[in-house]
Amino acid sequence: xxxxxxxxxxxxxxxxxxxxxxxxxxxxxxxxxxxxxxxxxxxxxxxxxxxxxxxxxxxxxxxxxxxxxxxxxxxxxxxxxxxxxxxxxxxxxxxxxxxxxxxxxxxxxxxxxxxxxxxxxxxxxxxxxxxxxxxxxxxxxxxxxxxxxxxxxxxxxxxxxxxxxxxxxxxxxxxxxxxxxxxxxxxxxxxxxxxxxxxxxxxxxxxxxxxxxxxxxxxxxxxxxxxxxxxxxxxxxxxxxxxxxxxxxxxxxxxxxxxxxxxxxxxxxxxxxxxxxxxxxxxxxxxxxxxxxxxxxxxxxxxxxxxxxxxxxxxxxxxxxxxxxxxxxxxxxxxxxxxxxxxxxxxxxxxxxxxxxxxxxxxxxxxxxxxxxxxxxxxxxxxxxxxxxxxxxxxxxxxxxxxxxxxxxxxxxxxxxxxxxxxxxxxxxxxxxxxxxxxxxxxxxxxxxxxxxxxxxxxxxxxxxxxxxxxxxxxxxxxxxxxxxxxxxxxxxxxxxxxxxxxxxxxxxxxxxxxxxxxxxxxxxxxxxxxxxxxxxxxxxxxxxxxxxxxxxxxxxxxxxxxxxxxxxxxxxxxxxxxxxxxxx
Length: 585
Known about the structure:
mainly alpha, Serine Threonine Protein Phosphatase 5, Tetratricopeptide repeat, 34 helices, 72% helix, repeat
């Protein structure tokens, strides 16, 4: 029933009477009052017409929530769909309390409104409230079950999601797809494959989820096999499918298949999609065809930040660091704002060139655009400053990073180790433990290196003991090499030799070369000869071992042995390799 404004109801019939007895002044006043009421009524009827829905939708679409609420309040009798529309809009802007208040005020609710409110709770991170609503639903649809299942998957409760999936009275293809995607998200590839095999009525999304999931879990070759099965089954690949397939080809470096897929993309007219263009740029860059990456870039229509960043990163991967920085500069000149990946790739190219000046210019841009506190950008800055000798600046960057990840801690510890700041590295390690961050194998490599460069033998022994007793971290050859380096610097050559011979991991020449270098430092011929023999057993023509052993003999004035070694090198065709450090992080 239409509600008439009070001002209009109170108008008397005499207001409409145009009697000749009415004076001109009164007549004018009456018309003015009438026109004002009519205009108000017209505005009111506009909001009562279906057009209010489009106005409400427009406000919600543009995030004008307060204006949307005003429009909603002027609607005479909002329907369930109108309530649901506003509830969804409020939830998306994280105004959960307002959304719940509106939901409880609804005169009647249907399954769609229940589903919208549950999803709103999940979007706002309130799984408990979502579960309460789900349990209280008078009737549930397959969407209700799937929404709740996705909610558990969002927070890593895979077993709860599985339970809901099994309890579903009926499952549509979306429910199957969600569970498969959830398995892949948490690395349960086997479960995802089993579910896909028994899934009835697979659609393009099902196949694409399998391709993407396998590729993201390091099974790119299997992903391409699934793509072949998809084509053979007669299911038409979508634009998203092609994007996933190109990415899998890029990860595998499969140029032949990638070119075939590229041809199909052009044939179907998908080549102008920005994300496909970015995937193709990455494909050719990974296959060492950076010229083709440039061609795809030039031919792409709208170049967004993803396309620019793909080319920037591709240039860096091909050691075209100058070209990468030119791409970054052109992107900025074009008015495209870099994202996290853009800055990381540009800084990595500065690192490749060891160009601190341009690195500082890019650093200034990260500060201006608010990326300096980002962990990934900050990590690249730490490594750049450390590599270019500015460890103090690197530590300062570390302190400004908002949410530090394990790479942030490791990069700073390793940077301090490389610059002989062993005490800083140990202090950072203690802070890391207090922050609740678990160290990994790279952390211990950095700590052992810090002990080596700063002359802390007992500390190194302690760290190595802890590492050996930590079941969740595998002791690798790098850790043994680090420990050999520490022992070698302190002249504990026999202990280092015994450690190498007793290593449970497969021995490599690097550990023996490290020991051989220490033998030269301490002029220990006996250990040096045994170390050299072990190296020649692994690699008979190792030029580095020959040179080191020859130098040790020379230091001991054993010139006949020097001549013998050089003759052996000559007869074996051993070529002296360019100098390098026997131990680098």
